[in-house]
Amino acid sequence: MHPHIEALYNSAQKPSRLIIGLMSGTSLDGLDVALCKITGAGLHTQIEVLKFTTVEYNDEYKTKIKQVFAKRECDLEVLTLLHPWVGKLHGAMVNQCLALWQVNPADIDVIASHGQTIYHCPQSQHNHHDFKNGTLQIGDSDQIAVTTGITTVGDFRQKHIAAGGEGAPLAVYGDYLFFASPNENRILLNMGGIANLTFLPKNGDTGAVFSSDIGPGNTIMDAYVQHYFKGLHYDEGAKLAKAGKVNTKLLTALTDNAFFKLPLPKTTGPEVFNLAYLREAQMHSTTQRLNHEDVLATLNALSATTIAKALNDCAQHTQDCVVYASGGGIHNPLLMEQLLMHCPNIKAFKNTESLGVNPDAKEAVLFAILANECLAGQRQSLNNNNQGILDITMGKVSFAD
Ligand SMILES: Nc1ncnc2c1ncn2[C@@H]1O[C@H](COP(=O)(O)OP(=O)(O)OP(=O)(O)O)[C@@H](O)[C@H]1O
Ligand SMILES: CC(=O)N[C@H]1[C@@H]2OC[C@@H](O2)[C@@H](O)[C@@H]1O[C@H](C)C(=O)O
């Protein structure tokens, strides 16, 4: 047997594994690195997040990625070069974390790497009738494995696409294993660049587990701030949006988008929710002359109202639904305030900290769970494949040499 296969076989049989989950989201703020001790697998999964950090990206990374990010046209040479470059950088960032944490790389079973999403195009979003769903993440896991010397599981979304899904949201797989409760109806809400949710009914009815993207979380607000306020990455504390007034004409034009009319489940990204979409809505509503603060207040309201609608729809047939939020949007006080105001029927709003997972670490932990399932799990049947949740094992394995 090849020694790497033997090592994987041994890891798969251990009662618990050390797995480093890596997530680089659409906000391009940094690489989330979560060192997790995962005990068991499947419905017996237990997780301890031993360390978590976000290694911030410098301007060079952001500029390089933005050459291709969510763009229909780009320089293929740059894209090809970025794939190994991002992988090597992520590997170096893991090495940096391990050194800082004084953790021996030899003690890590595997790294679980999401990579950097460059383009996401479900069928609902493109006009190529001869193609189905597609999504592309770069940051080659071979580079991570070679740079760290640690076996790396990566490229999780392609199996979902291969099995007929849209490649997202994958959160449901981890949410179901780790956050489902026999006593409480739960909605796990992540508000990153794009917002998504997972509904977990308390009765253990796997057929009712549900997951979908909702629409913009922070992505358009971030893009707007980065474009008009040089040097700022986002509207910290919603200071700018709080100084503005919601413009209802613009809000109506923004809400009048084909994505919001699609039935759930569905997925999207900054390919749709970007400054061009905002400009078009401003033209339709003749609100091109609004000041920046009013635009940001309106974008904030767009996220809050569309997320609230998805939560209310989800909770409509369910009493006592508790929302557990995660992602950078929870740090936006205006977004949270508006969300609470629009969701009077939600029993309580908490964040995933109260379930033992740092809300900023949740997506990195998710990929650690998916890698753990790839090694030691069994496929879960959630709802007979009729709601976009497929019975699959995800991830491709890269060895260090
Ligand atoms: N203090 C804060 N005030 C306002 N907004 C904040 C604050 N902290 C974080 N954010 C928002 O959260 C964003 C980062 O969120 P997060 O890291 O969850 O996104 P992501 O993981 O890149 O996205 P996705 O999950 O869509 O891939 C920031 O770009 C910003 O918009
Ligand atoms: C293609 C892609 O990278 N999608 C991300 C993005 O960020 C949030 C939302 O859009 C979600 O669908 C997904 O990530 C999470 C981790 C998921 O798959 O559950």
Automatic annotation (TrEMBL):
<dbReference type="GO" id="GO:0097175">
    <property type="term" value="P:1,6-anhydro-N-acetyl-beta-muramic acid catabolic process"/>
</dbReference>
<comment type="pathway">
    <text>Cell wall biogenesis; peptidoglycan recycling.</text>
</comment>
<dbReference type="GO" id="GO:0006040">
    <property type="term" value="P:amino sugar metabolic process"/>
</dbReference>
<keyword id="KW-0547">Nucleotide-binding</keyword>
<keyword id="KW-0067">ATP-binding</keyword>
<dbReference type="GO" id="GO:0016301">
    <property type="term" value="F:kinase activity"/>
</dbReference>
<dbReference type="GO" id="GO:0005524">
    <property type="term" value="F:ATP binding"/>
</dbReference>
<dbReference type="GO" id="GO:0016773">
    <property type="term" value="F:phosphotransferase activity, alcohol group as acceptor"/>
</dbReference>
<comment type="function">
    <text>Catalyzes the specific phosphorylation of 1,6-anhydro-N-acetylmuramic acid (anhMurNAc) with the simultaneous cleavage of the 1,6-anhydro ring, generating MurNAc-6-P. Is required for the utilization of anhMurNAc either imported from the medium or derived from its own cell wall murein, and thus plays a role in cell wall recycling.</text>
</comment>
<keyword id="KW-0119">Carbohydrate metabolism</keyword>
<keyword id="KW-0808">Transferase</keyword>
<dbReference type="Pfam" id="PF03702">
    <property type="entry name" value="AnmK"/>
</dbReference>
<comment type="pathway">
    <text>Amino-sugar metabolism; 1,6-anhydro-N-acetylmuramate degradation.</text>
</comment>
<feature type="binding site">
    <location>
        <begin position="25"/>
        <end position="32"/>
    </location>
    <ligand>
        <name>ATP</name>
    </ligand>
</feature>
<keyword id="KW-0418">Kinase</keyword>
<dbReference type="InterPro" id="IPR005338">
    <property type="entry name" value="Anhydro_N_Ac-Mur_kinase"/>
</dbReference>
<protein>
    <recommendedName>
        <fullName>Anhydro-N-acetylmuramic acid kinase</fullName>
        <ecNumber>2.7.1.170</ecNumber>
    </recommendedName>
</protein>
<dbReference type="InterPro" id="IPR043129">
    <property type="entry name" value="ATPase_NBD"/>
</dbReference>
<dbReference type="GO" id="GO:0009254">
    <property type="term" value="P:peptidoglycan turnover"/>
</dbReference>
<comment type="similarity">
    <text>Belongs to the anhydro-N-acetylmuramic acid kinase family.</text>
</comment>
